[in-house]
Structures are given as C-alpha cells and as structure tokens.
Design a protein that fits this description.
By secondary structure, this protein is an all-alpha fold. Helix content is about 75%, strand content about 0%.
Length: about 120
Amino acid sequence: MTKKLNLKISVFELISYIVLGALALWGIVYIVLGLVCATALKYDSGLLIRDNEMKAHGIGFLTQGIIILAVAVVALTIVLLSCAKKSDKSFEKEQRKAARLNYAQTKIIDAKVEDVSEKKE
C-alpha cells in the first residue's frame, strides 16, 4: 500500500530550504510589523513603543525585516544554484552513459556497393 517516494533532493537541500524559508518568513513578518507600526498605529501600543525603542537604538522592524529577507533570499539562491549544478552534472553523466550503451547495442551492417552505371552498357 505504501509507495516509496523517489525524491531527487538531498537531505541538506531539504533542510536548507526549510530553514531558509522560515528565515524568509520571519523577515516578511518583521516587514509587515514595520508597515503596521508606520501607518496604522496612532496610539501608544506595545508594538509601536517597541518599534520606537528599536529605532532609537538603531533600526526598526521594517529595516530589520528587509535585511533578514535579503539574507534569506541570497542564501536560498546560493543553495539552489549549487544543488542545480550538481543535479545537472549527474543528469548529463546519465545521458552520456545511456548514449554509450545505445551506441554499443546498435549493429553496423556493411553492404557491398556495385557501380550501376557500368552495367547499363
């Protein structure tokens, strides 16, 4: 009843996608919180007070979210490119092997060729 899934993804790739996806989601949450603090909140709420404290010490929710999201996107791009390169190499290797096996199995037939123009005379 249970079928084994044949995933062509390594454990490292899967874990890195999950971790970096969660990091990107964290950055998006911070961006949303920063936008809410900047536009929607007019009274002193805990979120607005925290954002103002963070801005006094350096950067607020919005800027932190942009930085976190940028780091996650760059890291995801690096992982994706490195794993795609490895996958392409293995795919090309399999294609070359299949072509060699196919070439070895084909039979080459030699045929005798006679000159037809001389026999017409």
